[in-house]
Amino acid sequence: MSAETIFVSYSSKDRPFALGLVKELQDLGANVWIDQLGIGLGENWDNAIEEALDKSGTFMLILSPTSVESPNVQDEVSIAINTKKKMVPILIEECKLPMRWQRRQYADLANNPDKAIHDILSFLGLQEKAAANIKKVLNLIGVSEAPKKFTRKKESENDNETEVHAEDLLVSDAEIDRAINMHKKGIKKNWQTTVITAVISVVLAILVYVFKDSGVITLDPMYAVIGCLSINLLSVRLYGSMRKRLRNIDLIELLKLKRERLTRVVNKLSNKEIEDFNTEFYNYITI
């Protein structure tokens, strides 16, 4: 590891994680600068940050929803890109990246911490055996540990054993997204049917009212009213179906978040827990 300074850019919301990560990297011999530890008593913050950024050779960017919205972080990133500093973007929470930032490959601590830690240590020239130290701060971003790809033995039809990833036994994100789209299409169709039903009902009522004394329509107005009410009962049923679909969409969205949490500890899941999760999903796609 060279003595080259690593400048850390982050939002104040992510300070606990940033400080924890910096401390671990410093313990491993990295020369890391962060404002909370690098600015002395009485120093001007803006001047100190500008000087540290100018002297640094590597720019470490903590990516999160708040950091991409931070004007200070945006300014620091612009300077780092314009001065062609080496970049170490680290994603700690899913967020939409500005177009200019999307061109940079980032270490994904939020979804793939094992690989992310390996990439960070390799880039900084630190020993791979130090990965365990970095894992200590993962709980600060909601990742209690770097999950291992857990496999289970499954016998195929020809009695040969094959490996099955436990994560693959869960309903996939793609299936969840398709279920949400299915409900949305159902809601749209129900709305269209409701509008058509209402139009038919109104037209029928108008015809009966206009021609009731002309002899053109001999239908008893009472039967016409009953007919209109019967048609509108269909709208009531459609409205109930739409409400149920909307509720199921909300539940499926929550189920998607639950799946993200489960995949982080997938090696600890039992077959029953996986089956219960999948059953819960299938309950939400039925009407």
Describe this structure in words.
The protein has 287 residues and is an alpha/beta fold. The protein folds into two domains: 6-141, 3-Layer(aba) Sandwich (Rossmann fold), CATH 3.40.50.10140; 173-284. Helix content is 58%, strand content 10%. The chain has helices at residues 15-27, 35-38, 45-55, 65-69, 71-82, 99-102, 113-124, 131-135, 166-169, 173-211, 221-264, 271-284; strands spanning 6-9, 32-33, 58-63, 86-91, 107-108, 151-155, 161-165. The strands form two sheets. A five-stranded parallel beta sheet has the order 2-1-3-4-5, sandwiched between helices. α10 (173-211) runs antiparallel to α11. The longest helix has 44 residues, at 221-264. It is elongated, with a radius of gyration of 30 Å. The termini are far apart. Residues 146-162 have low confidence and may be disordered.
